[in-house]
């Protein structure tokens, strides 16, 4: 991979890159739409992700090129004039990160030339955008040699997404990418960013991702809508409860007070946030106790809640999950990420993986009309230099 990136850099910019860097994608095992509600999440970084070959340049110009979007050519912009531009498409992610870093006073003292290549499917819900964000922060740190922690790189990526891109996302994606650890998932409390690594050495099972190939489309605006529905529900609950987030509530406390929300839709959104947080805590406890069956049941309950109460699944993801659950050797299955398209994650007995991919693939294609893609994945580590 390193050679491929170095060669491409030379081809595009006619000079040598200083180094090649990598940041992973992520998959969330459970804890969906809880990260902006002060709840827990349980994602892991992947071994697939985004690569960058980069070098500083002698002027104040940023030149970005993606091997995934060759038709867009080299995207050029001035370091002193970083604003979101439709025509810059994917390059708005690195631009946003560098803008946040410059505003925070990090010494990015010249332009850079960067070639990117990602092997995460785009718009799949495996965080290709957060991967580019964290990678770009890491590239700047390495090229200019300043000190910035990986947790800070995650926060910078989230800020770029919120303020530059305009998606009001939580911290999960950037955090799990920046802080990934091979063979482990991260049990993160988004209320205070305390975290714990949990080994996911599944004895005789694999994590299988199924990509629906349904692009997210209007997903970003729906995402922001869900977030404001939760905020509105919280505001109502706060008229009677001394809480700062939905993540502070147990199921019982929620049930006692839910009627105060006064709107059936917002009530269901809040219910999901509260119950999903509790499910995540229970799921990690189950995993620690080696009770993978219980972990799987909680994954299934998570999907049901995302479908019925949070309404972020859709026919494609629901088909993948119900097809998965009809197969032998499946421990659990659910949508992962924001929803509205993207991927599902399933835990499948190793011996059943091939049949799973074949059968779920057929059922999906028959019903939806186009194919899904499958990836058997491992938990990978955070950013590094190749
Ligand atoms: C997207 C966001 C995350 C998180 C998930 C849903 O991936 O970027 O912050 O909210 O959706 O769990």
Strand order of the largest sheet: 5-4-6-3-1-13
**What is the CA–CA distance across the termini?**
9 Å
Biggest sheet architecture:
6 strands, mixed
The ligands found in this model are: alpha-D-galactopyranose
Percentage of β-strand residues = 15-25%
Query: Stretches where pLDDT falls below 50 for ≥5 residues?
Result: none
Mean pLDDT: 96
Report the oligomer: single chain
Structural class by SSE content: alpha+beta
Q: Report Rg.
A: 21 Å
Number of strands: 13
Shape: globular
List the secondary-structure elements in sequence, H or E. Answer: HEEEEEHEHHHEEEHHHHHEEHEE
Helical percentage: 40-55%
Number of helices: 11
Task: Describe, in plain words, how this protein is organized in 3D.
- With 386 residues, the chain is an alpha+beta fold.
- It contains 11 helices and 13 strands.
- Strands 5-4-6-3-1-13 form a 6-stranded mixed sheet. It has a 4-stranded antiparallel sheet with strand order 10-11-9-12. It has a 3-stranded antiparallel sheet with strand order 2-7-8, covered by helices on one side.
- A hairpin with a 4-residue loop joins strand 7 and strand 8.
- Helix 3 crosses helix 4 and helix 8 (264-288) packs antiparallel against helix 9.
- Alpha-D-galactopyranose binds at residues 32-33, 35-36, 169-170, 172-173, 337-338.
